[in-house]
Specification:
β9, α4 and β10 form a beta-alpha-beta unit. The two termini are 24 Å apart. It is globular and about 65 Å long. The protein folds into 2 domains: 153 residues, Quinone Oxidoreductase, Chain A, domain 1; 151 residues, 3-Layer(aba) Sandwich (Rossmann fold). By secondary structure, it is of the alpha/beta class.
């Protein structure tokens, strides 16, 4: 039997500020013979995501940091090429969290078999039909409690989560959805493809002023992927009883100095606001509900998506660094094998 090999991207050093290629190393691994209970998978796509930057530091967080010398764990989808377990057969499509590698050998229990939908790429399981879409749904329903007619503001709206949030908010009855993005092209995409009623380029002026212009009647819900000046702008724009789902703070992930907080925190009190941070691990019980709704929306042609795809496991670090700088539209992915 030929050797089963994989190329893995590992953490070589903890980044200070913006990560660089020197913080990662590429390693080729020759795997031993399969043991009972194990499977071998050739990945088709691996995911790069903002939360991974947090795991590269050793600061306290909701999940353990990556260890130096450890393969960067995260979402991936692939096909089983060898198996010792009938429940995870050869040819099955599987999701897993083994991360930045073109192939994986591991216990079958660490893979989840998912159905294939004719005409839909496997990559969708890593975003709109997977954790990205679920993140949008959880934030809007369980955290922010979006209601019919609400005005919703989404920061980082042209990213993977943001493009999902805008659409799901409208499908759940929001009356007006406003987004921020980092270029004129992305702003146009939000209004022309993703159903946003208004959008603005946060690089073209004060975020607080631009949001006030886009939402003259205020906002009821804020879905935050950015933090910083976007959170400050939302606090200024909130109507009484406003709710915020705090999903990410990409604006500060690479900061090396303390970042000043919003200057209008007292609005939380005077306007009876609710701000709640969340991570998806506590809300996975909503996945079946989400899958049922999203499958229906998708079947009805009511969901759009974009992917920015880099080719080759050797481009994974490039994809991650570019994603952190906002080079992606929609979900950033790396195609590492045959689809």
């Amino acid at each position: 039997m030929a050797d089963f090999r994989s190329t893995q991207i590992r953490l070589a050093a903890r980044p200070t500020g913006w990560p660089t290629h020197d913080d990662f190393e590429t390693v080729e691994v020759v795997h031993p013979d399969l043991k009972p209970g194990q499977v071998r998978v050739r990945n088709a796509f691996v995911s790069v995501d903002p939360y991974m930057r947090g795991r590269m530091s050793d600061a306290r967080s909701y999940v353990a940091p990556y260890e130096i010398g450890q393969t960067i764990a995260g979402g991936a989808v692939g096909r089983v090429v060898e198996s010792t377990v009938s429940e995870v057969p050869v040819g099955a499509t599987v999701l897993h969290q083994h991360g930045w590698s073109d192939a994986v050998q591991a216990d079958a229990s660490t893979f989840r078999v998912v159905p294939e939908t004719p005409g839909l790429p496997l990559s969708l399981r890593l975003h709109i039909l997977g954790m990205t879409g679920l993140t949008a749904y959880v934030g809007l329903t369980a955290i922010a409690g979006v209601k019919e007619g609400d005005t919703v503001f989404v920061s980082g709206a042209a990213g993977a989560v943001g493009t999902a949030v805008g659409q799901v908010a409208k499908l759940l009855g929001a009356g007006r959805v406003i987004g921020s993005a980092g270029s004129a092209e992305k702003v146009a995409l939000l209004t022309e493809k993703y159903g946003y009623d208004a959008a603005f380029d946060y690089k073209q002026g004060d975020v607080r002023a631009q949001l006030a212009d886009a939402a003259p009647a205020g906002i009821d819900v804020f879905f935050d992927n950015v933090g910083g000046d976007h959170l400050e702008a939302a606090l200024a724009a909130f109507n009484d009883g406003g709710r915020a789902a705090l999903c990410g703070a990409i604006s500060v992930y690479n900061s090396t100095e303390r970042t000043p907080g919003p200057d209008n925190m007292s609005n939380i009190i005077t306007r009876s606001l609710t701000l709640q941070g969340f991570t998806l691990g506590s809300w996975l019980h909503l996945a079946p509900e989400f899958q049922e709704k999203m499958s229906g929306w998708f079947a009805d042609g009511r969901i759009a998506y974009d992917e920015t795809v880099y080719d080759g496991i050797d481009r994974t670090v490039d994809a991650f660094l570019d994603m952190m700088r906002g080079a992606n539209t929609g979900k950033m992915l790396v195609r590492v094998g045959e689809v």
